[in-house]
Specification:
The complex is a heterodimer. Chain A is an all-beta fold. Chain A has strands spanning about 5, 10, 20-25, 35-40, 45-50, 60, 70-75, 80-85, 90-100, 105-110, 115. In chain A, the strands form two sheets. In chain A, strands 2, 4, 5, 6, 9, 10 and 11 form a seven-stranded mixed beta sheet that branches. A four-stranded antiparallel beta sheet of chain A has the order 1-3-8-7, with no helix packed on it. The model of chain A has no long low-confidence stretch (mean pLDDT about 95). The radius of gyration of chain A is 13 Å and the shape is globular. Chain A has no helices and eleven strands. In chain A, about 0% of the residues lie in helices and about 55% in strands. Chain B is mostly beta strands. Chain B has no helices and eleven strands. Chain B has strands spanning about 5, 10-15, 20-25, 40-45, 50-55, 60, 65-70, 75-80, 90-95, 100-105, 105-110. In chain B, strands 2, 4, 5, 6, 9, 10 and 11 form a seven-stranded mixed beta sheet that branches. In chain B, strands 1-3-8-7 form a four-stranded antiparallel beta sheet, with no helix packed on it. In chain B, a hairpin with a 3-residue loop joins strand 5 and strand 6 (about 60). The chains are: A mainly beta, B mainly beta. The interface of A and B includes residues 44, 45, 60, 102 and 112 of A.
Chain lengths: ~120, ~110
């Protein structure tokens, strides 16, 4: 079974940092684009970032550039999202989603991990 | 950025009746490779999103044939031929033709 499992969410104070992880199984992780998508409470979906299978190329939504960093470790079948200088508006469920080439159709989604930014 | 606009916001439907959701993009989603990277996702209450349709009209594995997608350029439609109780949820269109990828605001399908 193809699975993505996120972890690392939690409660963090404004200005703090958090690192999310996503582990893939049931497929050859190193051959797929991987994405982060977030959903604020009661709101719609927002694409955050993605990166190429070998991790050499990354893309971000402009509003998060400089604060969030996407990375991966294909030896561990893992995707990461380093989030710095967190703000209340970053409160959301963060999903990882597999992207099918050539243009990242989001075919498999994890169940998400919840990030709450609050003092 | 490409803006994706979905209508209606909410669609109350009688069981067994059809439902239709519209998605309009602020610019053409036709990629230089000739393909149109427009997908539809379903999010049931309390669940993560799930892929239904990709490249306008291709049903993903395991998706019942009561779901169909159509359209071209900037106008797209998701149709449910006969709504069942398990179809309740929010439906999103998403474009992955151009960065940044963008989603529609969502359409809530509920039973009358």
């Amino acid at each position: 079974e193809v699975l993505l499992v996120e972890s690392g969410g939690g409660l963090v104070q404004p200005g703090g940092s958090l690192r999310l992880s996503c582990v893939g199984s049931g497929f050859t992780f190193s051959t797929f684009w991987m994405n982060w998508v977030r959903q604020a409470p009661g709101k719609g979906l927002e694409w955050v970032a993605n990166l190429q299978p070998d991790g050499s190329q990354t893309y971000y939504v402009d509003s998060l550039k400089g604060r969030f960093t996407i990375s991966r470790d294909n030896t561990r079948d893992s995707l990461y999202l380093q989030m710095n200088d967190l703000r209340a508006e970053d409160t959301a469920v963060y999903y990882c989603a597999r992207g099918v080439a050539p243009h990242n159709t989001f075919d498999i989604w994890g169940r998400g991990t919840t990030v709450t930014v609050s003092s | 950025d490409i803006v994706m606009t979905q209508t209606p916001l909410s669609s109350p439907v009688t069981l067994g009746q059809p439902a239709s959701i519209s998605c309009r993009s602020s610019q053409s989603l036709v990629h230089s490779d000739g393909n149109t990277y427009l997908s539809w996702l379903q999010q049931r209450p309390g669940q993560p999103p799930r892929l239904l349709i990709y490249k306008i009209s291709n049903r993903f594995s395991g998706v019942p044939d009561t779901f169909s997608g159509s359209g071209a350029g900037t106008d797209f439609t998701l149709k449910i031929s006969r709504v069942e109780a398990e179809d309740v949820g929010v439906y999103y269109c998403v474009q992955t033709t151009q960065y940044p990828f963008t989603f529609g605001g969502g359409t809530k399908v509920e039973i009358k």
